[in-house]
Amino acid sequence: QKEVEQNSGPLSVPEGAIASLNCTYSDRVSQSFFWYRQYSGKSPELIMSIYSNGDKEDGRFTAQLNKASQYVSLLIRDSQPSDSATYLCAVSASQGNLIFGKGTKLSVKP
Amino acid sequence: NAGVMQNPRHLVRRRGQEARLRCSPMKGHSHVYWYRQLPEEGLKFMVYLQKENIIDESGMPKERFSAEFPKEGPSILRIQQVVRGDSAAYFCASSPFSGLASEQYFGPGTRLTVT
What we know:
Oligomer: heterodimer
Largest interface: A-B, 25 and 28 residues
Order of helices and strands of chain A: EEEEEEEEEEE
Largest sheet of chain A: 6 strands, mixed
Distance between the termini of chain B: 33 Å
Structural class of chain B: mainly beta
Structural class of chain A: mainly beta
Distance between the termini of chain A: 40 Å
Shape of chain B: globular
Number of strands of chain B: 11
Number of strands of chain A: 11
Helix content of chain B: under 10%
Number of helices of chain A: 0
Radius of gyration of chain A: 13 Å
Largest sheet of chain B: 7 strands, mixed
Strand content of chain B: over 45%
């Protein structure tokens, strides 16, 4: 059973701080990794995709991938109250569908 | 609207009725995925379709659930004889191509309530 694990949180950070969200996955052959943001009552919104080891930056967001450790992370710099949401880590399965973690709830306090 | 469209946004059914959920992928996308999100649970894959083909239905319950993506028109997820446990948010996602690297974009979802 392929699994994706995330701390459920809530993770609370002050406005302006760096939020660090972590994810581990069980299938060693996984190749594609995604971070989605989901506001309460809304649908998941794609933030980042990452496919190779290392860092990938997009604005205030940085995704980090370490395939040897089966670990993916998302850093949010200069966190804003509008970043308060649940962040979902997803891993591609063999047919291309996504396996999701249960999500980490982030709260950014003004 | 160039995004993924789903309707209805909210659907209430009594136990034993049928529910039909519709999904129109983004323009240029021919791959459709259905996911279900139970309250306080993560998103679970149900089925992956291309036009006129079911590619992977490994996540779909064997009974009462079916899906199609006809040559013309939206993809439809059909739930027959609904039960209270079917109450959930059903999301459709689309991608422009197949493969492990393909990014998926989600529609607004259909919230199904079974009374």
